[in-house]
């Protein structure tokens, strides 16, 4: 009984507390970013929050409180991973999505739309099936040579493409693209930490050798780039959508990197790969549904359609042409 409470039971409790912290951090940081921004100016294609703007945002008490909550959530999640397997702890992180939806609904005194609820359920189901399936077939082994460098380059290309798409668009598309790009960068952090720990534990490299130092530099760069992209997402969309992208894309990217590039999926059968792909598609569909049906996105679309429809000029009436009989009579009088 004591072992059950000190092991999985305590780990589940810590993971749930971490999910609450992540949801609260997303809501607080989103409010801090949106407080000093003009949606009509800051959410235009090609417009991004500048470094100076980020420094100003980082001084706001709400943003700092959100950062403290995020750090607390990370510590709780790490402690849960020490006490229980990945397949038990990781799916619980996606519970931050419904918690963020609930917090926003309570703040606005507004019931979530059906499309939002469907998106939350799809995200939870997709991530849960994906992580549980991957954890059941993954094998632990030191990464092959140059695998971490290749993984970093692949993720860098993905991040650049998603960030370019996000900055070229506006509204919920920018929010989802930037949040997914940030989540991909954070997924690379998990993969690099896992790869370095395996290499050091197996004795292949020392803690201060160049491959380890390069991986540490990659972790630092990924955290900075991911954090910047997440703040861009907060400036363009609601916190529930951002936290959904993070909790969906981060574990999927980390598991795929470990399975495909780091050799952890060598024993995964073909039918399991189909299940993984289906779960990833389901989770992504949930994020898109949540983003499209969120009240903020619906209100933004209505504001764009309404004035546009009213701004179309009404065509002027053409001058009436006199009937043919009157025209012929006028011509005959003219000849006389």
UniProtKB/TrEMBL annotation:
Coiled coil: none annotated. Residues 301-336 are annotated as: Disordered. The keyword Membrane applies. Keywords: Membrane, Transmembrane, Transmembrane helix. The keyword Protein biosynthesis does not apply. The chain crosses the membrane at residues 6-28, 62-82, 88-106, 113-135, 147-168, 175-196, 208-229, 241-261, 273-291. PANTHER family: CONSERVED INTEGRAL MEMBRANE ALANINE VALINE AND LEUCINE RICH PROTEIN-RELATED. This is Magnesium transporter NIPA. It comes from Pseudonocardia aurantiaca. The lineage of its organism: Bacteria, Bacillati, Actinomycetota, Actinomycetes, Pseudonocardiales.
């Amino acid at each position: 009984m004591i072992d059950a409470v000190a092991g999985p039971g305590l780990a589940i409790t810590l993971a749930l507390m971490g999910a609450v912290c992540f949801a609260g951090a997303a809501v607080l940081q989103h409010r801090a970013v949106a407080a000093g921004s003009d949606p009509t100016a800051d959410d235009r294609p090609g417009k991004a929050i500048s470094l100076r703007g980020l420094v100003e945002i980082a001084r706001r008490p709400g943003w700092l409180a959100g950062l403290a909550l995020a750090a607390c959530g990370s510590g709780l999640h790490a402690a849960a991973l020490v006490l229980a397997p990945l397949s038990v702890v990781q799916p619980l992180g996606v519970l931050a999505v419904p918690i963020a939806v609930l917090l926003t609904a309570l703040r606005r005194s507004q019931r979530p739309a059906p499309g939002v609820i469907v998106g939350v359920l799809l995200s939870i189901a997709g991530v849960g099936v994906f992580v549980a399936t991957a954890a059941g077939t993954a094998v632990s082994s030191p990464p092959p040579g140059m695998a971490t460098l290749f993984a970093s380059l692949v993720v860098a290309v993905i991040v650049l493409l998603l960030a370019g798409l996000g900055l070229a668009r506006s509204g919920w598309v920018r929010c989802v693209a930037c949040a997914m790009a940030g989540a991909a960068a954070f997924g690379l952090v998990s993969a690099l930490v896992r790869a370095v720990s395996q290499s050091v534990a197996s004795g292949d490299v020392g803690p201060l050798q160049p491959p380890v130092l390069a991986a540490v530099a990659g972790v630092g760069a990924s955290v900075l780039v991911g954090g910047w992209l997440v703040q861009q997402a907060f400036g363009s969309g609601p916190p529930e959508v951002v936290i959904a992208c993070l909790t969906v894309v981060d574990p999927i990217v980390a598991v795929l990197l470990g399975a495909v590039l780091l050799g952890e999926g060598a024993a995964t059968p073909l039918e399991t790969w189909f299940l993984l792909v289906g779960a990833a598609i389901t989770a992504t569909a949930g994020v898109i549904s949540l983003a499209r049906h969120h009240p903020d996105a619906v209100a933004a679309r209505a504001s764009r359609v309404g004035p546009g429809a009213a701004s179309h000029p009404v065509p002027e009436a053409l001058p009436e042409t006199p009937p043919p009989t009157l025209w012929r009579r006028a011509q005959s009088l003219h000849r006389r």
